[in-house]
């Protein structure tokens, strides 16, 4: 089992509840705007604490209300790519990529895979949307995560850039074998990337 999630949480007016258990590959979370998809990612990441339930990824229990287990985000070994790239504006691309990386050795190979090797000395403000997104994905991968969370990684990209990021995610799915939990609005993306689809 990759993701074994059963969470309930009141967020403002919204009562969010979701249960799913999925195997290896990409689990895609789909559903209308405001239904709570990003909140579920935040509960898996440890940024939002569920009122009840459990979160297990692989063999590890990250949260279990009944026994009081609640690992802080930094101990969950999560690579989280937010809807906005959230790069550090005062750090060059290279330093952004290495932020949180236990080891600089995989930098060259990861940058080559994401086709961002020529951008290492640039500042984030000079990047296009697609480039910034790929740097955010690279930073998540280089932190040596146990799993990836991707929140609408193709949103607000033009069709060419979208295709590039789609291919990157396919490559990560097929080569790194990291469990991936991803949110998308787009049925075609879900169809193409998903090993499992969870509807909210
Ligand atoms: N800080 C907050 N205070 C009150 N309500 C909130 C807060 N954060 C989120 N919500 C509400 O919780 C619900 C779930 O939000 P969430 O961002 O998880 O949805 P989503 O499915 O990811 O939406 P989208 O697809 O539009 O990004 C929404 O109804 C939202 O208005």
Automatic annotation (TrEMBL):
<dbReference type="GO" id="GO:0016887">
    <property type="term" value="F:ATP hydrolysis activity"/>
</dbReference>
<keyword id="KW-0067">ATP-binding</keyword>
<dbReference type="InterPro" id="IPR017871">
    <property type="entry name" value="ABC_transporter-like_CS"/>
</dbReference>
<dbReference type="Pfam" id="PF00005">
    <property type="entry name" value="ABC_tran"/>
</dbReference>
<dbReference type="InterPro" id="IPR003439">
    <property type="entry name" value="ABC_transporter-like_ATP-bd"/>
</dbReference>
<dbReference type="InterPro" id="IPR003593">
    <property type="entry name" value="AAA+_ATPase"/>
</dbReference>
<feature type="domain" description="ABC transporter">
    <location>
        <begin position="2"/>
        <end position="200"/>
    </location>
</feature>
<keyword id="KW-0547">Nucleotide-binding</keyword>
<dbReference type="GO" id="GO:0005524">
    <property type="term" value="F:ATP binding"/>
</dbReference>
<protein>
    <submittedName>
        <fullName>Molybdate transport system ATP-binding protein</fullName>
    </submittedName>
</protein>
<dbReference type="InterPro" id="IPR050334">
    <property type="entry name" value="Molybdenum_import_ModC"/>
</dbReference>
<dbReference type="InterPro" id="IPR027417">
    <property type="entry name" value="P-loop_NTPase"/>
</dbReference>
């Amino acid at each position: 089992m990759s993701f074994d999630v059963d969470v309930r949480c009141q967020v403002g007016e919204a009562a969010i509840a979701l249960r799913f258990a999925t195997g290896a590959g990409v689990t895609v979370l789909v559903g209308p705007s405001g239904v709570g998809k990003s909140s579920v990612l935040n509960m898996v990441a440890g940024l939002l604490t569920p009122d009840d339930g459990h979160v297990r990824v692989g063999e590890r229990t990250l949260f279990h209300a009944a026994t009081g287990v609640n690992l802080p985000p930094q101990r969950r070994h999560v690579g989280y790519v937010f809807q906005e790239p959230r790069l550090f504006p005062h750090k060059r691309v290279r330093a952004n990529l290495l932020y949180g990386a236990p080891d600089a050795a995989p930098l060259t190979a990861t940058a080559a895979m994401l086709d961002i090797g020529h951008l290492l000395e640039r500042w984030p403000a000079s990047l296009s949307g697609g480039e910034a997104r790929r740097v955010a994905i690279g930073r998540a991968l280089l932190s040596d995560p146990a799993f990836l969370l991707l929140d609408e990684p193709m949103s607000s990209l033009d069709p060419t850039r979208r295709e590039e990021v789609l291919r990157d995610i396919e490559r990560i799915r097929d080569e790194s074998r990291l469990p991936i939990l991803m949110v998308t609005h787009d049925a075609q993306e879900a169809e193409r990337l998903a090993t499992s689809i969870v509807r909210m």
